[in-house]
Amino acid sequence: MKITVIGAGNVGATTAQRIVEKQLASNVVLVDVVEGTPQGKALDIFEATPMERADVHVVGTNSYEATAGSDIIVITAGIARKPGMSRDDLMHTNSGIVRSCALASAAVSPNAIIVIVSNPLDVMVYVALKASGFDRRRVVGMAGVLDSARFRSFIALELNVSVEDINAFVLGGHGDSMVPLPRYSTVAGIPITELMNAETIERLVKRTRDGGIEIVNYLKTGSAFFAPSSSAVAMVESIVRNKKRILPCAAYLQGEYGITDTVVGVPVKLGRGGIEEIIQIQLTSGERKALENSANDVKQSIAKLSQ
User: How many Å apart are CA 183 and CA 283, to the nearest integer?
Assistant: First the structure.
């Protein structure tokens, strides 16, 4: 198994580190346009492998030659979000970066599965899908996994219970229009709607929506990378080990949930083939409307790319 991580910033380097420590590949390639950065970080990660007892070869590069034949490509490249910057502000710059990454990596790894982490996430999945020419099952975005992890964390804090017992679903776009589903969010199988009142749930939902910017505002000069990298690696692990986990991921829809020709977060089965199934769960009229509104927001953002 060979995995390439494009982008050697905080998210990319931490993603590569977690992949190595979990021994999800025998070869990991870290790519970045900044000369010396991927080489130095890859060497640092490799020098930690004896301590982690991880027999993984790690290299850093500024070109795509060393990435040839990758089974999975994780794209984290792009400018970081700063205070006062919306996800849309990132779009035009990052779309060019992600397009070039997808084109270059797909050319030398035509059978790979692409996992997108770059923001604005849903639009970047669409960009990578079109640029690579891959089947929609082989281009998937990390969004709902991260949003659900944040929601789970906040539920655990509120109820003072173990995060291990909490499951949560957050669908829709990765941003202000995300759609947390309290009905499908449980603690040891008990819906959170039976454990806290509506006002508390709405407060946690709002904090989940603002989860990224809350960290940006604390850091001032950077954005989240520990939780995003963990979320991306959870997806990679499900693919590598063919675990077929049901995870909320950004996928290109062609009629599912009544949504066509756009990317939005929905439950998918992730296995060795990438997206092996898009799970269509029952939604209330309000939840469905919120998902449609979120999809429309993504569509409008995609339309701006040609302007």
Answer: 10
**Separation CA 298–CA 306 (nearest Å):** 14
- The pLDDT-based confidence of 85 (bands split at 50, 70, 90) is low
Token pair in block for residue 28: 């990991």
Report whether 120 contacts 235 (CB < 8 A): no
72: pLDDT strictly greater than 70? yes
Q: How confident is the model at residue 87 (pLDDT cuts 50, 70, 90)?
A: low
Alpha-carbon distance of 139 to 130, in angstroms, equals 10
Domain boundary among 141, 172, 207: 141
Q: Provide CB contacts within 8 A for 219, sequence distance 6+.
A: none
Q: How far apart are CA 136 and CA 130, in angstroms?
A: 9
Distance between CA atoms of residues 250 and 188, nearest Å = 26
For residue 164, what pLDDT band results from cuts at 50, 70 and 90? very high
Report how many domains make up the chain.
Answer: 2
Residues 237 and 249 in one domain: yes
Structure token digits, residue 94: 């990052």
Q: Which active-site residues does the annotation give?
A: 174
CA distances from 201 to 45, 92, 195, 230, 238 (A): 40, 35, 10, 25, 30
> What is the average per-residue pLDDT within 262-285?
96
pTM of the model: 0.95
CA 140, CA 290: separation in Å to the nearest integer?
A: 21
What does the DSSP assignment read for 102-125? HHHHHHH-TT-EEEE--SSHHHHH
Written as six digits, the tokens of 237 are 């692990």
Residue 86's pLDDT is: 66
